[in-house]
Amino acid sequence: MNLFLDAFAWIFSPDRLTGSLPLPEAVAQHLAFTFGSVLIAALIAIPVGWAIGHTGRGREFAVALSGAARAIPTLGLVVLLYLLVGVVYKSQAAVVAFVILAIPSILAGAYTGFEAIDRSTISAARAVGMTGRQILFEVEVPLGLPLLIGGLRSATLQVVATVTIATYVGLGGLGFYIIQGIQLRDTAQILGASVLVVVLALVLDGVFALIQRLVVPRGVVARTARTRSTAAARPVPAS
Amino acid sequence: MNWVVNNLELIWGLTLSHLRQSGIAIVASFVIALPLGWLAWRYTRLRGSVLTTIGLLYTIPSLGLFALLWAVFGIPYLSESNLVIALTVYGVAIMTRSVTDGLDSVEPSTREAAIAVGYGPWRRFWTVDLPLAGPVLLAGLRVTATSTIALATVGILIGVENLGYLFTNGLQRRIIPEVLAGVVLVVIIALVFDLIILIAGRLLMPWVPRREGSRAERRALRRFAAEGAA
Question: Hey, which residues 18-57 in chain A have their CB within 8 Å of chain B?
Fold first, then answer.
Protein backbone atom coordinates (compact mmCIF):
# COMPACT_ATOMS: atom_id res chain seq x y z
CA MET A 1 0.00 0.00 0.00
CA ASN A 2 3.08 2.20 0.19
CA LEU A 3 2.70 2.86 -3.51
CA PHE A 4 -0.71 4.35 -2.93
CA LEU A 5 0.50 6.44 0.01
CA ASP A 6 3.18 7.93 -2.22
CA ALA A 7 0.60 8.49 -4.93
CA PHE A 8 -1.75 10.31 -2.57
CA ALA A 9 1.17 12.31 -1.21
CA TRP A 10 1.86 13.32 -4.80
CA ILE A 11 -1.77 14.31 -5.43
CA PHE A 12 -2.09 16.41 -2.28
CA SER A 13 1.39 17.94 -2.35
CA PRO A 14 1.36 21.77 -2.46
CA ASP A 15 3.71 21.48 -5.47
CA ARG A 16 0.66 20.44 -7.51
CA LEU A 17 -0.62 24.01 -7.43
CA THR A 18 2.49 25.44 -9.06
CA GLY A 19 4.84 24.33 -11.83
CA SER A 20 4.35 24.14 -15.59
CA LEU A 21 0.93 22.50 -15.31
CA PRO A 22 -0.92 22.94 -12.00
CA LEU A 23 -3.21 20.04 -11.18
CA PRO A 24 -6.53 22.00 -11.13
CA GLU A 25 -5.67 23.36 -14.56
CA ALA A 26 -4.98 19.85 -15.89
CA VAL A 27 -8.36 18.65 -14.58
CA ALA A 28 -10.05 21.69 -16.13
CA GLN A 29 -8.34 21.02 -19.49
CA HIS A 30 -9.37 17.39 -19.34
CA LEU A 31 -12.99 18.26 -18.65
CA ALA A 32 -13.05 21.07 -21.23
CA PHE A 33 -11.77 18.76 -23.98
CA THR A 34 -14.21 16.05 -22.95
CA PHE A 35 -17.38 18.12 -22.70
CA GLY A 36 -16.52 20.36 -25.64
CA SER A 37 -16.03 17.36 -27.94
CA VAL A 38 -19.07 15.47 -26.66
CA LEU A 39 -21.21 18.59 -27.10
CA ILE A 40 -20.11 19.08 -30.72
CA ALA A 41 -20.60 15.36 -31.40
CA ALA A 42 -24.07 15.50 -29.82
CA LEU A 43 -25.12 18.46 -31.97
CA ILE A 44 -24.24 16.42 -35.04
CA ALA A 45 -25.30 12.93 -33.95
CA ILE A 46 -28.58 13.51 -32.10
CA PRO A 47 -30.56 15.04 -35.02
CA VAL A 48 -29.21 12.40 -37.40
CA GLY A 49 -29.93 9.60 -34.92
CA TRP A 50 -33.48 10.85 -34.33
CA ALA A 51 -34.05 11.08 -38.06
CA ILE A 52 -32.87 7.48 -38.46
CA GLY A 53 -35.02 6.31 -35.55
CA HIS A 54 -38.12 8.22 -36.68
CA THR A 55 -38.03 7.25 -40.34
CA GLY A 56 -36.31 3.88 -39.94
CA ARG A 57 -34.11 4.80 -42.90
CA GLY A 58 -30.31 4.68 -42.81
CA ARG A 59 -30.20 2.19 -39.96
CA GLU A 60 -27.78 -0.15 -41.73
CA PHE A 61 -25.49 2.80 -42.25
CA ALA A 62 -25.52 3.70 -38.55
CA VAL A 63 -24.84 0.09 -37.50
CA ALA A 64 -21.95 -0.20 -39.94
CA LEU A 65 -20.58 3.14 -38.74
CA SER A 66 -20.52 2.16 -35.08
CA GLY A 67 -18.93 -1.18 -35.98
CA ALA A 68 -16.22 0.48 -38.04
CA ALA A 69 -15.59 3.14 -35.39
CA ARG A 70 -14.68 0.49 -32.84
CA ALA A 71 -11.88 -0.67 -35.12
CA ILE A 72 -10.21 2.78 -35.25
CA PRO A 73 -7.15 3.05 -32.98
CA THR A 74 -7.74 6.28 -31.07
CA LEU A 75 -4.06 7.13 -30.56
CA GLY A 76 -3.40 6.68 -34.29
CA LEU A 77 -6.31 8.92 -35.26
CA VAL A 78 -5.16 11.71 -32.94
CA VAL A 79 -1.55 11.53 -34.15
CA LEU A 80 -2.64 11.41 -37.78
CA LEU A 81 -4.86 14.48 -37.51
CA TYR A 82 -2.17 16.27 -35.52
CA LEU A 83 0.42 15.68 -38.24
CA LEU A 84 -2.01 16.60 -41.02
CA VAL A 85 -3.27 19.81 -39.44
CA GLY A 86 -0.04 21.00 -37.90
CA VAL A 87 1.32 21.99 -34.52
CA VAL A 88 -0.45 25.35 -34.43
CA TYR A 89 -3.90 23.82 -34.51
CA LYS A 90 -3.17 20.76 -32.40
CA SER A 91 -6.09 21.34 -30.00
CA GLN A 92 -8.50 21.67 -32.91
CA ALA A 93 -7.04 18.54 -34.53
CA ALA A 94 -7.49 16.62 -31.28
CA VAL A 95 -11.07 17.85 -30.85
CA VAL A 96 -11.90 16.67 -34.38
CA ALA A 97 -10.54 13.22 -33.46
CA PHE A 98 -12.56 13.16 -30.21
CA VAL A 99 -15.72 14.22 -32.03
CA ILE A 100 -15.25 11.45 -34.62
CA LEU A 101 -14.86 8.94 -31.78
CA ALA A 102 -17.87 10.23 -29.84
CA ILE A 103 -20.36 10.34 -32.72
CA PRO A 104 -21.12 6.59 -33.16
CA SER A 105 -22.14 5.99 -29.50
CA ILE A 106 -24.41 9.04 -29.43
CA LEU A 107 -25.89 8.18 -32.83
CA ALA A 108 -26.59 4.64 -31.65
CA GLY A 109 -28.09 5.93 -28.40
CA ALA A 110 -30.40 8.27 -30.31
CA TYR A 111 -31.78 5.77 -32.81
CA THR A 112 -31.91 2.71 -30.55
CA GLY A 113 -33.85 4.87 -28.08
CA PHE A 114 -36.56 5.25 -30.72
CA GLU A 115 -36.40 1.64 -31.84
CA ALA A 116 -36.86 0.31 -28.33
CA ILE A 117 -40.27 2.02 -28.08
CA ASP A 118 -43.21 -0.36 -28.29
CA ARG A 119 -44.79 0.02 -31.76
CA SER A 120 -48.26 -0.01 -30.21
CA THR A 121 -47.39 3.19 -28.29
CA ILE A 122 -46.64 4.96 -31.57
CA SER A 123 -49.83 3.57 -33.13
CA ALA A 124 -51.81 4.78 -30.11
CA ALA A 125 -50.31 8.26 -30.47
CA ARG A 126 -51.30 8.29 -34.13
CA ALA A 127 -54.78 6.98 -33.29
CA VAL A 128 -55.50 9.85 -30.90
CA GLY A 129 -54.66 12.22 -33.75
CA MET A 130 -51.08 13.29 -33.05
CA THR A 131 -49.16 14.60 -36.05
CA GLY A 132 -45.78 13.17 -37.06
CA ARG A 133 -44.10 16.13 -35.42
CA GLN A 134 -46.02 15.65 -32.18
CA ILE A 135 -45.23 11.94 -32.15
CA LEU A 136 -41.55 12.77 -32.58
CA PHE A 137 -41.25 15.38 -29.85
CA GLU A 138 -43.92 14.28 -27.39
CA VAL A 139 -43.66 10.50 -27.62
CA GLU A 140 -40.46 9.31 -29.21
CA VAL A 141 -38.00 11.85 -27.80
CA PRO A 142 -39.03 11.52 -24.12
CA LEU A 143 -39.30 7.72 -24.31
CA GLY A 144 -35.97 7.43 -26.09
CA LEU A 145 -34.18 9.75 -23.68
CA PRO A 146 -32.75 7.13 -21.28
CA LEU A 147 -30.98 5.27 -24.11
CA LEU A 148 -29.79 8.58 -25.59
CA ILE A 149 -28.26 9.52 -22.24
CA GLY A 150 -26.69 6.04 -22.22
CA GLY A 151 -25.11 6.84 -25.57
CA LEU A 152 -23.82 10.18 -24.26
CA ARG A 153 -22.48 8.33 -21.23
CA SER A 154 -20.38 5.88 -23.22
CA ALA A 155 -19.24 8.65 -25.57
CA THR A 156 -18.11 10.76 -22.60
CA LEU A 157 -16.21 7.88 -21.01
CA GLN A 158 -14.55 7.06 -24.27
CA VAL A 159 -13.46 10.65 -24.77
CA VAL A 160 -12.16 10.88 -21.17
CA ALA A 161 -9.98 7.84 -21.85
CA THR A 162 -8.88 9.18 -25.23
CA VAL A 163 -7.99 12.64 -23.89
CA THR A 164 -5.65 10.85 -21.46
CA ILE A 165 -3.92 9.06 -24.32
CA ALA A 166 -3.96 12.09 -26.60
CA THR A 167 -1.73 13.96 -24.18
CA TYR A 168 1.00 12.25 -26.12
CA VAL A 169 0.81 15.03 -28.72
CA GLY A 170 1.11 17.66 -25.97
CA LEU A 171 -2.44 18.64 -25.11
CA GLY A 172 -2.16 18.81 -21.35
CA GLY A 173 -4.86 17.19 -19.23
CA LEU A 174 -4.26 14.48 -16.65
CA GLY A 175 -2.50 12.19 -19.09
CA PHE A 176 0.37 14.70 -19.18
CA TYR A 177 1.52 13.63 -15.71
CA ILE A 178 1.31 9.93 -16.56
CA ILE A 179 3.40 10.26 -19.70
CA GLN A 180 5.86 12.62 -18.00
CA GLY A 181 5.99 10.23 -15.04
CA ILE A 182 6.88 7.32 -17.33
CA GLN A 183 9.73 9.35 -18.85
CA LEU A 184 11.00 10.46 -15.41
CA ARG A 185 10.39 7.00 -13.90
CA ASP A 186 8.44 8.76 -11.14
CA THR A 187 6.12 6.02 -9.88
CA ALA A 188 4.26 8.25 -7.40
CA GLN A 189 3.38 10.66 -10.20
CA ILE A 190 2.28 7.85 -12.58
CA LEU A 191 0.04 6.25 -9.99
CA GLY A 192 -1.24 9.53 -8.55
CA ALA A 193 -2.31 10.83 -11.95
CA SER A 194 -3.73 7.43 -12.92
CA VAL A 195 -5.83 7.36 -9.76
CA LEU A 196 -7.17 10.82 -10.63
CA VAL A 197 -8.05 9.72 -14.16
CA VAL A 198 -9.87 6.67 -12.83
CA VAL A 199 -11.74 8.74 -10.24
CA LEU A 200 -12.70 11.30 -12.89
CA ALA A 201 -14.10 8.55 -15.15
CA LEU A 202 -16.01 6.89 -12.29
CA VAL A 203 -17.49 10.21 -11.14
CA LEU A 204 -18.64 11.09 -14.67
CA ASP A 205 -20.10 7.60 -15.04
CA GLY A 206 -21.97 8.02 -11.77
CA VAL A 207 -23.37 11.40 -12.78
CA PHE A 208 -24.62 9.99 -16.08
CA ALA A 209 -26.11 6.95 -14.35
CA LEU A 210 -28.05 9.33 -12.13
CA ILE A 211 -29.27 11.47 -15.04
CA GLN A 212 -30.24 8.31 -16.92
CA ARG A 213 -32.45 7.30 -14.02
CA LEU A 214 -33.98 10.75 -13.64
CA VAL A 215 -35.03 11.16 -17.28
CA VAL A 216 -37.20 8.04 -17.38
CA PRO A 217 -40.83 9.25 -17.70
CA ARG A 218 -42.92 8.33 -14.66
CA GLY A 219 -45.34 6.02 -16.48
CA VAL A 220 -42.43 4.04 -17.89
CA VAL A 221 -40.87 3.53 -14.46
CA ALA A 222 -44.03 1.81 -13.27
CA ARG A 223 -44.11 -0.42 -16.34
CA THR A 224 -40.46 -1.53 -16.16
CA ALA A 225 -40.82 -2.25 -12.45
CA ARG A 226 -43.68 -4.61 -13.22
CA THR A 227 -41.83 -6.38 -16.04
CA ARG A 228 -38.84 -6.83 -13.81
CA SER A 229 -40.88 -8.44 -11.06
CA THR A 230 -42.43 -10.89 -13.51
CA ALA A 231 -38.96 -11.76 -14.79
CA ALA A 232 -37.83 -12.43 -11.25
CA ALA A 233 -40.88 -14.57 -10.61
CA ARG A 234 -40.03 -16.78 -13.58
CA PRO A 235 -39.01 -20.22 -12.32
CA VAL A 236 -35.25 -20.67 -12.26
CA PRO A 237 -34.22 -23.95 -13.88
CA ALA A 238 -33.14 -26.58 -11.41
CA SER A 239 -29.52 -27.61 -11.72
CA MET B 1 3.74 4.74 -49.98
CA ASN B 2 7.52 4.59 -50.33
CA TRP B 3 7.89 4.45 -46.59
CA VAL B 4 5.68 1.37 -46.37
CA VAL B 5 7.54 -0.46 -49.15
CA ASN B 6 10.89 0.27 -47.51
CA ASN B 7 9.78 -0.88 -44.09
CA LEU B 8 7.80 -4.01 -44.82
CA GLU B 9 9.94 -6.08 -42.48
CA LEU B 10 9.35 -3.72 -39.55
CA ILE B 11 5.60 -3.61 -40.25
CA TRP B 12 5.42 -7.40 -40.47
CA GLY B 13 7.22 -7.86 -37.15
CA LEU B 14 4.96 -5.33 -35.43
CA THR B 15 1.87 -6.97 -36.94
CA LEU B 16 2.90 -10.35 -35.53
CA SER B 17 3.38 -8.88 -32.04
CA HIS B 18 0.05 -7.12 -32.37
CA LEU B 19 -1.71 -10.35 -33.36
CA ARG B 20 -0.06 -12.26 -30.51
CA GLN B 21 -0.95 -9.71 -27.84
CA SER B 22 -4.54 -9.16 -28.92
CA GLY B 23 -5.11 -12.83 -29.80
CA ILE B 24 -4.17 -13.97 -26.30
CA ALA B 25 -6.38 -11.29 -24.76
CA ILE B 26 -9.41 -12.15 -26.93
CA VAL B 27 -9.18 -15.89 -26.19
CA ALA B 28 -8.58 -15.27 -22.47
CA SER B 29 -11.58 -12.91 -22.27
CA PHE B 30 -13.85 -15.53 -23.78
CA VAL B 31 -12.58 -18.33 -21.53
CA ILE B 32 -12.93 -16.21 -18.37
CA ALA B 33 -16.23 -14.57 -19.31
CA LEU B 34 -18.04 -17.85 -20.04
CA PRO B 35 -18.13 -19.19 -16.44
CA LEU B 36 -18.40 -15.67 -15.00
CA GLY B 37 -21.37 -14.80 -17.20
CA TRP B 38 -22.99 -18.14 -16.42
CA LEU B 39 -22.60 -17.56 -12.65
CA ALA B 40 -24.12 -14.09 -12.94
CA TRP B 41 -27.00 -15.50 -14.96
CA ARG B 42 -27.64 -18.58 -12.83
CA TYR B 43 -27.40 -16.96 -9.40
CA THR B 44 -29.65 -13.92 -9.54
CA ARG B 45 -28.16 -12.57 -6.31
CA LEU B 46 -24.68 -12.38 -7.84
CA ARG B 47 -25.96 -10.85 -11.02
CA GLY B 48 -26.25 -7.25 -9.90
CA SER B 49 -22.87 -7.09 -8.22
CA VAL B 50 -20.99 -8.97 -10.95
CA LEU B 51 -22.43 -6.84 -13.75
CA THR B 52 -21.91 -3.59 -11.81
CA THR B 53 -18.28 -4.41 -11.02
CA ILE B 54 -17.69 -5.31 -14.62
CA GLY B 55 -19.36 -2.13 -15.81
CA LEU B 56 -17.07 -0.10 -13.55
CA LEU B 57 -13.97 -1.90 -14.85
CA TYR B 58 -15.05 -0.95 -18.33
CA THR B 59 -15.21 2.74 -17.46
CA ILE B 60 -11.57 2.85 -16.32
CA PRO B 61 -9.37 4.58 -18.93
CA SER B 62 -6.61 2.29 -20.20
CA LEU B 63 -3.73 4.46 -18.96
CA GLY B 64 -5.31 4.39 -15.51
CA LEU B 65 -5.84 0.63 -15.58
CA PHE B 66 -2.19 -0.08 -16.39
CA ALA B 67 -1.12 1.72 -13.22
CA LEU B 68 -3.78 0.01 -11.09
CA LEU B 69 -2.75 -3.46 -12.30
CA TRP B 70 0.82 -2.61 -11.39
CA ALA B 71 0.10 -1.05 -8.00
CA VAL B 72 -2.58 -3.53 -6.88
CA PHE B 73 -1.40 -6.81 -8.41
CA GLY B 74 2.30 -6.13 -8.84
CA ILE B 75 2.35 -6.66 -12.59
CA PRO B 76 5.38 -4.81 -14.01
CA TYR B 77 4.15 -1.47 -15.34
CA LEU B 78 6.14 -1.32 -18.56
CA SER B 79 5.54 -4.87 -19.74
CA GLU B 80 3.68 -6.86 -22.35
CA SER B 81 1.86 -8.82 -19.64
CA ASN B 82 0.44 -5.57 -18.27
CA LEU B 83 -0.98 -4.71 -21.70
CA VAL B 84 -2.37 -8.22 -22.31
CA ILE B 85 -3.97 -8.39 -18.85
CA ALA B 86 -5.52 -4.92 -19.26
CA LEU B 87 -6.91 -5.89 -22.66
CA THR B 88 -8.28 -9.08 -21.11
CA VAL B 89 -9.99 -7.07 -18.36
CA TYR B 90 -11.80 -4.96 -20.97
CA GLY B 91 -12.60 -8.06 -23.02
CA VAL B 92 -14.07 -9.83 -19.99
CA ALA B 93 -16.14 -6.72 -19.26
CA ILE B 94 -17.72 -6.87 -22.72
CA MET B 95 -18.03 -10.66 -22.95
CA THR B 96 -19.51 -11.40 -19.51
CA ARG B 97 -22.38 -9.09 -20.26
CA SER B 98 -23.02 -10.81 -23.57
CA VAL B 99 -22.88 -14.28 -21.94
CA THR B 100 -25.61 -13.35 -19.44
CA ASP B 101 -27.64 -11.59 -22.14
CA GLY B 102 -27.18 -14.61 -24.42
CA LEU B 103 -28.36 -17.08 -21.78
CA ASP B 104 -31.29 -14.77 -21.06
CA SER B 105 -32.27 -14.88 -24.72
CA VAL B 106 -32.87 -18.66 -24.59
CA GLU B 107 -36.61 -19.34 -24.37
CA PRO B 108 -37.43 -20.73 -20.89
CA SER B 109 -39.83 -23.23 -22.52
CA THR B 110 -36.96 -24.66 -24.59
CA ARG B 111 -34.91 -25.08 -21.44
CA GLU B 112 -37.82 -26.66 -19.62
CA ALA B 113 -38.34 -29.06 -22.52
CA ALA B 114 -34.69 -30.10 -22.22
CA ILE B 115 -35.16 -30.70 -18.49
CA ALA B 116 -38.33 -32.66 -19.20
CA VAL B 117 -36.63 -35.04 -21.62
CA GLY B 118 -33.97 -35.68 -18.97
CA TYR B 119 -31.01 -33.42 -19.79
CA GLY B 120 -28.75 -32.94 -16.78
CA PRO B 121 -27.40 -29.46 -15.99
CA TRP B 122 -23.97 -30.05 -17.57
CA ARG B 123 -25.26 -31.55 -20.81
CA ARG B 124 -28.05 -28.99 -21.00
CA PHE B 125 -25.58 -26.12 -20.75
CA TRP B 126 -23.35 -27.42 -23.55
CA THR B 127 -26.02 -28.77 -25.89
CA VAL B 128 -29.00 -26.46 -25.31
CA ASP B 129 -28.17 -23.18 -23.53
CA LEU B 130 -24.79 -22.43 -25.06
CA PRO B 131 -25.70 -23.12 -28.72
CA LEU B 132 -28.94 -21.14 -28.42
CA ALA B 133 -27.12 -18.25 -26.74
CA GLY B 134 -24.65 -18.44 -29.62
CA PRO B 135 -25.80 -15.48 -31.74
CA VAL B 136 -25.56 -13.05 -28.81
CA LEU B 137 -22.21 -14.52 -27.73
CA LEU B 138 -21.00 -14.11 -31.28
CA ALA B 139 -22.03 -10.45 -31.35
CA GLY B 140 -20.17 -9.92 -28.06
CA LEU B 141 -17.10 -11.68 -29.35
CA ARG B 142 -17.05 -9.52 -32.47
CA VAL B 143 -17.17 -6.36 -30.38
CA THR B 144 -14.48 -7.74 -28.07
CA ALA B 145 -12.18 -8.66 -30.96
CA THR B 146 -12.42 -5.36 -32.83
CA SER B 147 -12.06 -3.17 -29.77
CA THR B 148 -9.18 -5.25 -28.36
CA ILE B 149 -7.24 -5.00 -31.61
CA ALA B 150 -7.77 -1.24 -31.81
CA LEU B 151 -7.00 -0.67 -28.13
CA ALA B 152 -3.81 -2.75 -28.14
CA THR B 153 -2.02 0.15 -29.86
CA VAL B 154 -2.10 2.06 -26.57
CA GLY B 155 0.53 -0.43 -25.38
CA ILE B 156 3.25 1.66 -27.00
CA LEU B 157 2.73 4.29 -24.28
CA ILE B 158 3.90 1.74 -21.70
CA GLY B 159 6.73 0.62 -23.97
CA VAL B 160 5.09 -2.44 -25.53
CA GLU B 161 5.83 -2.64 -29.22
CA ASN B 162 3.06 -3.46 -31.66
CA LEU B 163 1.43 -1.51 -34.50
CA GLY B 164 1.09 1.39 -32.05
CA TYR B 165 4.84 1.89 -32.53
CA LEU B 166 4.07 3.32 -35.97
CA PHE B 167 2.07 6.12 -34.32
CA THR B 168 4.68 7.30 -31.81
CA ASN B 169 7.61 6.75 -34.17
CA GLY B 170 5.73 8.43 -37.01
CA LEU B 171 4.96 11.38 -34.76
CA GLN B 172 8.56 11.83 -33.65
CA ARG B 173 9.89 11.57 -37.19
CA ARG B 174 6.89 13.39 -38.73
CA ILE B 175 6.26 10.67 -41.30
CA ILE B 176 2.55 10.83 -42.16
CA PRO B 177 2.53 7.62 -44.30
CA GLU B 178 3.91 5.69 -41.31
CA VAL B 179 1.04 6.78 -39.04
CA LEU B 180 -1.52 6.29 -41.81
CA ALA B 181 -0.18 2.79 -42.50
CA GLY B 182 -0.58 1.98 -38.80
CA VAL B 183 -4.18 3.20 -38.63
CA VAL B 184 -5.17 1.43 -41.86
CA LEU B 185 -3.48 -1.84 -40.83
CA VAL B 186 -5.16 -1.89 -37.42
CA VAL B 187 -8.57 -1.25 -38.99
CA ILE B 188 -7.97 -3.96 -41.61
CA ILE B 189 -6.85 -6.52 -39.01
CA ALA B 190 -9.87 -5.68 -36.82
CA LEU B 191 -12.28 -6.06 -39.73
CA VAL B 192 -10.65 -9.32 -40.87
CA PHE B 193 -10.96 -10.74 -37.33
CA ASP B 194 -14.57 -9.60 -37.29
CA LEU B 195 -15.24 -11.36 -40.59
CA ILE B 196 -13.48 -14.56 -39.46
CA ILE B 197 -15.59 -14.70 -36.28
CA LEU B 198 -18.73 -14.00 -38.29
CA ILE B 199 -17.97 -16.81 -40.77
CA ALA B 200 -16.95 -19.20 -37.99
CA GLY B 201 -20.27 -18.43 -36.33
CA ARG B 202 -22.22 -19.18 -39.51
CA LEU B 203 -20.38 -22.50 -39.87
CA LEU B 204 -20.79 -23.48 -36.21
CA MET B 205 -24.41 -22.35 -35.99
CA PRO B 206 -26.03 -23.15 -39.34
CA TRP B 207 -29.47 -23.19 -37.71
CA VAL B 208 -29.42 -19.47 -36.96
CA PRO B 209 -31.56 -17.55 -39.44
CA ARG B 210 -29.66 -14.74 -41.10
CA ARG B 211 -32.01 -11.90 -40.24
CA GLU B 212 -34.67 -12.48 -37.63
CA GLY B 213 -33.84 -13.43 -34.07
CA SER B 214 -35.98 -13.69 -30.99
CA ARG B 215 -37.04 -10.47 -29.25
CA ALA B 216 -34.65 -10.90 -26.33
CA GLU B 217 -31.85 -11.64 -28.76
CA ARG B 218 -32.58 -8.52 -30.80
CA ARG B 219 -32.66 -6.48 -27.63
CA ALA B 220 -29.29 -7.85 -26.54
CA LEU B 221 -27.81 -7.21 -29.97
CA ARG B 222 -29.18 -3.69 -29.96
CA ARG B 223 -27.50 -2.97 -26.68
CA PHE B 224 -24.16 -3.78 -28.25
CA ALA B 225 -24.85 -1.26 -30.95
CA ALA B 226 -25.43 1.36 -28.26
CA GLU B 227 -22.35 0.61 -26.23
CA GLY B 228 -19.05 1.69 -27.69
CA ALA B 229 -15.62 0.72 -26.45
CA ALA B 230 -13.51 2.88 -24.19
Answer: none
Task: Summarize the confidence of residues A36-65 as an average pLDDT.
Answer: 88
Any residues with CB less than 8 A from the CB of B63 and at least 6 apart, and which?
Answer: A161, A164, A165, A175, A178, A194, A197, B154, B157
Q: How far apart are CA B39 and CA B135, in angstroms?
A: 19
Residue A229 pLDDT level (bands cut at 50, 70, 90): very low
Number of H-type helices and E-type strands within chain B = 11, 0
State the ipTM, two decimals. Answer: 0.83
CB A85 within 8 A of CB A25: no
B152 close to B25: Cβ distance less than 8 angstroms: yes
CB proximity under 8 Å: A 168-187 to B? 168-169, 175, 178-179, 182, 187
CB of A41 closer than 8 Å to CB of A103: yes
List the domain boundaries for chain A: 2-11+23-233
Class of domain A2-11+23-233: mainly alpha
- Name chain B contacts of A2, Cβ cutoff 8 Å: none
Of A109, A194, A198, the CB nearest to B226: A109
Give the Cα separation of B226 and A154 in Å (integer). 8
Distance CA A160, CA A154 (A): 10
pLDDT at B120: 86
Contacts of A155 in chain B (CB under 8 A): 228
**Contact residues, chain B, for A64 at CB < 8 Å:** none
Q: At what angle do helices B44-59 and B8-42 cross, to 10 degrees?
A: 150
User: Which of A8, A52, A63, A79 is best to mutate for the B interface (most B CBs within 10 A)?
Assistant: A79
Model pTM score: 0.84
Using a CB-CB distance cutoff of 8 angstroms, which residues of chain A are in contact with residue B156?
Answer: 75
Flag whether pLDDT at B211 surpasses 60: no
